Amino acid sequence: MGHKFAELAFTGAVKNIQSDQGSRNSHARMEVGDDYNYVLGPNEAQFIAARDSFYMATVSETGWPYVQHRGGPVGFVKILDDKTLGFADFRGIRQYVSMGNISQNDRVSLFFMDYPNKTRLKLLGRVQTLGASELDTQQKLSLGDRYKARVERGLLITVEAFDWNCPQHITPRFTSAEADYEVSSLQTTILELKAKLRAKNARN
Ligand SMILES: Cc1cc2nc3c(=O)[nH]c(=O)nc-3n(C[C@H](O)[C@H](O)[C@H](O)COP(=O)(O)O)c2cc1C
């Protein structure tokens, strides 16, 4: 069936619009041959392991899509094997919209952004919930003492398909740590230039 993300995302209605808009033929080429884009490779694993947040969409029992942010220290999303990723889910304001949706429909869409490098990865999967006490014993999702948050549960996602998107319209944004890194290298350069200027002035 070819590209697994296309197989899941290109529904009949989607294909009809592709046909109307004249893009169907090029997209249909993705749908032939051996299956691909459903097993995480080194690129996907490395990209996900470097993220400190992502967006997770669930589907409500009334058909509404719901998107929420999930965040933590870099690497809080763990790659458990080439079909499974998971993370510790923290306590929030206890509306439990995502959890309620997941209890009725295990489909999720995850969206990972790397703003500085203008790269994004979208992933479709099926989610399973682990109790907080199962985090350490069953899966290595626990963050230990290195992050202050109350873990309510673990979420395990079995990957069904993924796709990379182009960098178009992504404005680079930097975390304070990333900005500090850039600024510190500029500060080093300024100090070096100042020292050279002082030495030059002293010689004159
Ligand atoms: C003090 C506090 C206030 C929050 N306020 C909101 C809020 O007003 N709206 C919201 O969507 N999330 C808010 N959050 C974050 C959510 O509670 C958190 O992301 C939660 O996991 C979302 O669950 P959900 O995916 O079921 O929406 C808040 C978190 C905290 C700790």
List the helices and strands and how they pair.
Blueprint: H1 4-9, H2 12-21, H3 24-28, H4 42-49, E1 53-59, E2 65-71, E3 78-81, E4 84-90, H5 97-104, E5 107-114, E6 119-131, H6 134-138, E7 151-165, H7 176-203
Antiparallel strand pairs: 1-2, 1-5, 3-4, 4-7, 5-6, 6-7
The structure holds flavin mononucleotide.
Structure description:
InterPro entries: Pyridox_Oxase_N, Split_barrel_FMN-bd. Residues 45-151 form the Pyridoxamine 5'-phosphate oxidase N-terminal domain. Pfam families: PNPOx_N (PF01243). The chain has three domains: 1-35, no CATH class; 38-173, Electron Transport, Fmn-binding Protein, Chain A (Pnp Oxidase, Chain A, Roll); 174-204. A seven-stranded antiparallel sheet has the order 2-1-5-6-7-4-3. It is globular and about 80 Å long. The mean pLDDT is 94. Strand 3 (78-81) and strand 4 (84-90) form a beta hairpin. It is α+β, with helices and mostly antiparallel strands. The chain contains seven helices and seven strands. It has helices at residues 4-9, 12-21, 24-28, 42-49, 97-104, 134-138, 176-203; strands spanning 53-59, 65-71, 78-81, 84-90, 107-114, 119-131, 151-165. The termini are far apart. Bound molecules: flavin mononucleotide. The site of flavin mononucleotide (FMN) has 8 residues, from helix 5. Flavin mononucleotide binds at residues 68, 92-93, 95-99.
Category from helices, strands and their pairing: alpha+beta
Rg over C-alpha atoms, rounded to the nearest angstrom: 22 Å
| Distinct compounds present | flavin mononucleotide
Determine the CATH topology of the largest domain.
Answer: Pnp Oxidase, Chain A
Q: First CA to last CA: what distance?
A: 75 Å
Gross morphology: globular
For the secondary structure, the number of strands is: 7
CATH superfamily of the largest domain: Electron Transport, Fmn-binding Protein, Chain A
Give the low-confidence spans. none
Q: What's the rounded overall pLDDT mean? A: 94
Structural domain count:
3
Strand line-up across the major sheet: 2-1-5-6-7-4-3
Helix-residue proportion: 25-40%
Order of helices and strands: HHHHEEEEHEEHEH
What is the CATH class name of the largest domain? Mainly Beta
CATH architectural grouping of the largest domain: Roll
In this structure, how is the largest beta sheet organized?
7 strands, antiparallel
Number of helices: 7
Strand content: 25-35%
